[in-house]
Every structure is written in C-alpha cells, then in structure tokens.
Write a structure and sequence with these properties.
Elements lengths: L1 H18 L4 H8 L16 E2 L5 E8 L2 E8 L5 E3 L3 H12 L14 E3 L4 E6 L2 E6 L5 E6 L2
C-alpha cells in the first residue's frame, strides 16, 4: 500500500512538472515582474495621506532615481507632488551644492504650510521650500 501511494505521488509530481512548462514568451513576459525589471507600477507604495482628504503622496523609485507622486484616491489622478526640476534648483541655490531632480538629496519629506511648502533634511540641516516661489530657507539643525 505504501509503495502504491509513493508511486502515485511521483506520477502526480511528474505530470505536474510537465504541465507547468511555459513557452519562451511566457517566461519573457514573467521576467517583467522581477524586481528591477521594468514594472515600476508594481513597486510597493507607502501612502502618506493628507489630513482629512482623499489624497496621498508617495515616493517612487525609477531607473533614473526617485520621484514623489500625488494621488487623488477618488479620481485615480496621479501627478508629481511638486516640480522636481524647480525644487532641485532651489535647493542647489540655497545650499550651494548641485542637486539632480531625479536624485534629490533627501529620502523623506513633510508637507507644511497647508501643502504650499515641503520640509526636508539634508545632511543634518532642515530646509523648508515654498512650492509657489521655489525658494528654500534653512530651519536649523535637525534633532
């Protein structure tokens, strides 16, 4: 009886493995979903909900760097949280160091002043940047 059960199990495993073979196209299509292989829309999203609203923002990794996206949960509309080019320029002017819009010098941010400004920390220094004028001012050391 034990032998018959063991043979039956092996037959099931053998048939299952033969049936599981996909085509070359199936494997190529599946590769797109491997980490770092061009499916950024499937990356993990950590939403930062705006108080008493149906909107949130999140940081998204791209092949070139990262960007911050604002999402309206009701309509599904997605757009940049701010002008990445202008913010990089404003931080570069304020700090005297060149920054790329695709590789901002911060990982996290805080929306302040009724969402009209962002507060970021760069190398232990806190900066607040207005999103209308794109001017940044130092807020002192973090801590």
């Amino acid at each position: 009886m034990k032998r018959l059960l063991l043979r039956s199990c092996w037959i099931v495993v053998l048939v299952s493995s033969l049936c599981a073979q996909g085509t070359r196209e199936d494997y190529a299509r599946a590769e797109r979903f491997l980490p770092g292989r061009g499916a950024p829309e499937l990356s993990q999203v950590s939403p930062n909900w705006l108080e008493k609203q149906d909107r949130f923002w999140y940081r998204r990794a791209t092949p070139e760097g990262r960007e911050f996206i604002l999402v309206d949960a009701k309509t599904g509309e997605r757009k940049p949280l701010f002008d990445h080019q202008k913010l990089a320029g404003a931080l570069s002017r304020a700090t005297g160091r060149p920054y790329s819009p695709k590789r901002p010098p911060f990982q996290a941010l805080e929306l302040v002043d009724n969402e009209r400004a962002v507060r970021v920390e760069i190398e232990g220094q806190v900066w607040t940047c207005q999103l209308t004028s794109y001017e940044c001012r130092s807020g002192g050391a973090s801590g």
